Write the structure tokens for this entry.
Amino acid sequence: MTWFNRDVIGVLDFGREDFEVLFSEALNMEKYAKSRLDLLGDKVLALAFFEPSTRTRLSFETAMLRLGGRVIGFSGTEATSMTKGENLADTIRMLDAYANAIVIRHSLEGAAKFAAEIAESPVINAGDGSQNHPTQAMLDLYTIWREFKVIDDLSIGILGDLRYARVVNSLIQALSYYRVKLHLISPELLRPRQELVEFMNSRNMKYDWTDDPYGVINDLDVLYVVRIQRERFPDPMEYEKVKGAYKVTPKLIERGKPSLVILHPLPRVDEIDFAVDNMPQARYFKQASLGVPLRMALLKLVLAGDKS
Amino acid sequence: MSSKRELIISKIRDGVVIDHIPTGRALLVLRLLGISGREGFRVALVMNVESRKLGTKDIVKIEGRELTKDELNLVALVAPTATVNIIRDYEVVSKFKVAIPDVIEGLLKCKNPRCITNQQREPVRSRFRVLSREPLKLVCDYCGTIHELNDIERYFGLT
Ligand SMILES: [Zn+2]
């Protein structure tokens, strides 16, 4: 299926072949990520960030500008004053009238899908609720593909909040198209939710779960880290206890393969020790920098089609 | 004077007979079909009658209102044993056992308070897809939350 004019709501609407098209386009876009390619000079992209997310918004904005297009929109608290109590449906109708595509970030689950049902222009989900963040998952996959040239047969550890972090859900869905071994690492309280477990089972994914990163670190090709938030713990003492145990430190990384690749969707708070930044395994800043060419590729495919 | 037996089987001219409803769920079946009794057409409820298959059962007869097969299949959510007889001119023109449809729109409410379908001010109807029938698992098409039989029974006030 072609990417042209398609909504990007969840990774499961796409498949391995779509990802391959996206990756080769992104690889091409890396050449232009710091210059300009006049592909979308006649296009306007609306950024509807009902919930703030500086990184995701800036990378979409940069991607559109690098492609010669223009950007309109709002972010965070601006959303409330701009929409003046208007409902989501009406705001989307307005943006749909102005723009060629709409990027939406919203705190409610299913908001992007709903927006896509209303808008005629393609809608791109930049994160809704705690379930979906497809462009982050595509970026994660792309980074892995860039590092290893393949995704099949890798052993991938996902460490942190597996229950509430939206990137985890989307990443695991995206990985379901590949033959990978998953090691899920989290405190008991933050184990993946039933929906995700059932999904992995239904796709016959190979996975296990542990609460001890030290037990699996030497088996990993990729360690994907997500933050554990204090608010998730009813008991602050419990949080303090697990916080240390899940912190990624040089001591943990030294026990892994030298070829290990550490990823993180960023922003990071203190779940990765700053001392790890200088280790060759740290690849999260590279991952973040690939966000622009990946989103350039996505915008190009959705707004201009597969032909270059 | 009509006998008890005649009361139960008294014929309707055009309409629907929903038979083999688990005891006590006839009113729920009507509610699920969106029938309050105030619409004007005739509705007959028979509750707690003997059934060879179920021990006891309820029966609902609705006269003068066409119901689509899709609508009637929703009955399976609360009465999986139910059978439907479509009556035209006193004759049974079709008979089927209800089966939960693949997509259920606008009927149930998603249990996830953060789901877009639970926002009062948005023009959106709930939509569920059947993930599995045995055991029953429905997934909200918007937020992905899985609903099991006990969620559905809770929704209809059965537990
Ligand atoms: Zn829902």
